[in-house]
């Protein structure tokens, strides 16, 4: 049996019942695909449900404040996706009268939409003849054909795109079903770890299985060194239960989210070194204040290219400029690192 047909049979028996599979509405498909970039379905599904409930139509998302969008996104990571999502929603709602572009080429013009997302929307909504290549597709083809070309190189991307297009040419049923099938097969069956090779419908033709290279494929080059950063958050406590927060700006991580005043250092520091820090003295202008470390051992928060060694310092002062009530801080969108701290730090009635 041809690969696409065998794949379809597997899919019809094993596919998950996911809400975005029961619609061809481009708003719903686009939202799900943006959320599932670098995110597992199990993690993304609750966020998708929350967004659809909060923003039933793209006009609702467009009209929302950036703080509300980021707050609903909080915990999903890669916050540039949320910012691009919001910008694209406003563009589609206000410039395109709420109608998504109707082709792969036009979809590529939207902010935050690359080759894969444009292909997914064009395929699932319009049944356009476009091949999808995501991490699951890379894995299936690399193992099935024993391909050791790194998937994160120009050569590798072109090769796997060509293989996906050749397979699509052989499809004699709904092309969107085929695209869903190969991604689902990679997600549920040909998994990164512990794939179900013994009951795989393609185990007789799988080169990686025959050559004992399942664990080695696909190949991905490591390019970026992990950078260590040392964050010292100042949890300022005033006598009237207020604290200071600031909005992150610039092009770094967590743009648009809120945080406690931050003193970044080159290494872990002591209380004495913190008190002597110039930026600390810019934040804390009173002469009479106290400092207490909240977590003696730094919390290590791992991002894709950097590890954050984070210490929270409780700083008690009489007065402080630009404060907010401590009971309202949960309304602000913050990084998961800070949310985890708040879960431990805040009294129950403030959470």
UniProtKB/TrEMBL annotation:
Supply the enzyme class, top level: hydrolase
Cofactors named for this entry:
[4Fe-4S] cluster
Task: Look up the EC number in the record and give it.
Answer: 3.2.2.31
**InterPro entries attached to this UniProt entry:** A/G_AdeGlyc_MutY, DNA_glycosylase, Endouclease-III_FeS-bd_BS, HhH-GPD_domain, HhH_base_excis_C, HhH_motif, MIG/MutY, MutY_C
Q: Name one process (GO BP) from the record.
A: base-excision repair
Alphabetized PROSITE patterns for the sequence? ENDONUCLEASE_III_1
Q: Name one GO molecular function term.
A: adenine/guanine mispair binding
Q: Does the keyword Ubl conjugation apply?
A: no
| Pfam families found in the cross-reference section | HHH, HhH-GPD, NUDIX_4
Q: Which UniProt keywords apply?
A: 4Fe-4S, DNA damage, DNA repair, Glycosidase, Hydrolase, Iron, Iron-sulfur, Metal-binding
Entry note: cofactor = Binds 1 [4Fe-4S] cluster.
Write out the catalysed reaction.
Answer: Hydrolyzes free adenine bases from 7,8-dihydro-8-oxoguanine:adenine mismatched double-stranded DNA, leaving an apurinic site
Q: Which CDD domains match?
A: ENDO3c (cd00056), NUDIX_DNA_Glycosylase_C-MutY (cd03431)
Family annotation (PANTHER family): ADENINE DNA GLYCOSYLASE
Q: Which family does it belong to?
A: Belongs to the Nth/MutY family.
Task: Please describe what this protein does.
Answer: Adenine glycosylase active on G-A mispairs. MutY also corrects error-prone DNA synthesis past GO lesions which are due to the oxidatively damaged form of guanine: 7,8-dihydro-8-oxoguanine (8-oxo-dGTP).
Task: Please give the name of this protein.
Answer: Adenine DNA glycosylase
Origin organism is Christiangramia flava JLT2011
């Amino acid at each position: 049996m041809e690969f696409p047909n065998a794949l379809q049979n597997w899919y019809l028996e094993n596919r998950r019942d996911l809400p975005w599979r029961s619609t061809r509405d481009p708003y719903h498909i686009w939202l799900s695909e943006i959320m599932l970039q670098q995110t597992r379905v199990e993690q993304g599904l609750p966020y998708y449900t929350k967004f659809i409930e909060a923003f039933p139509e793209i006009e609702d998302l467009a009209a929302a404040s950036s703080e509300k969008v980021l707050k609903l996104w909080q915990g999903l990571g890669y916050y540039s996706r949320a910012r691009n999502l919001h910008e694209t929603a406003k563009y589609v709602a206000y410039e395109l009268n709420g109608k998504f572009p109707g082709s792969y080429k036009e979809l590529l013009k939207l902010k935050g939409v690359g080759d894969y997302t444009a292909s997914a929307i064009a395929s699932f909504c319009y049944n356009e003849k476009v091949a999808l290549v995501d991490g699951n597709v890379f894995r299936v083809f690399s193992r099935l054909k024993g391909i050791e070309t790194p998937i994160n190189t120009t050569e590798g991307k072109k090769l796997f795109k060509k293989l996906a297009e050749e397979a699509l040419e052989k499809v004699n049923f709904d092309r969107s079903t085929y695209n869903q099938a190969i991604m689902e097969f990679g997600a549920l069956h040909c998994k990164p770890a512990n794939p179900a090779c013994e009951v795989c419908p393609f185990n007789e033709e799988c080169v990686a299985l025959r050559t004992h290279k399942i664990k080695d494929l696909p190949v991905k080059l490591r390019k970026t060194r992990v950078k260590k950063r040392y964050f010292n958050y100042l949890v300022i406590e005033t006598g009237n239960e207020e604290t200071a927060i600031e909005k992150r700006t610039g092009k770094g991580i967590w743009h648009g989210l809120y945080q406690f005043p931050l003193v970044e250092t080159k290494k872990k520091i002591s209380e004495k070194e913190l008190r002597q820090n110039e930026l600390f003295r810019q934040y804390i202008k009173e002469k009479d204040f106290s400092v207490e470390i909240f977590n003696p051992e730094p919390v290590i928060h791992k991002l894709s290219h950097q590890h954050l060694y984070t210490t929270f310092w409780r700083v008690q002062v009489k007065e402080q400029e630009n404060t907010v009530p401590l009971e309202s801080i949960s309304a602000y969108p913050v990084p998961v690192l800070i949310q985890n701290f708040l879960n431990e730090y805040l009294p129950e009635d403030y959470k």
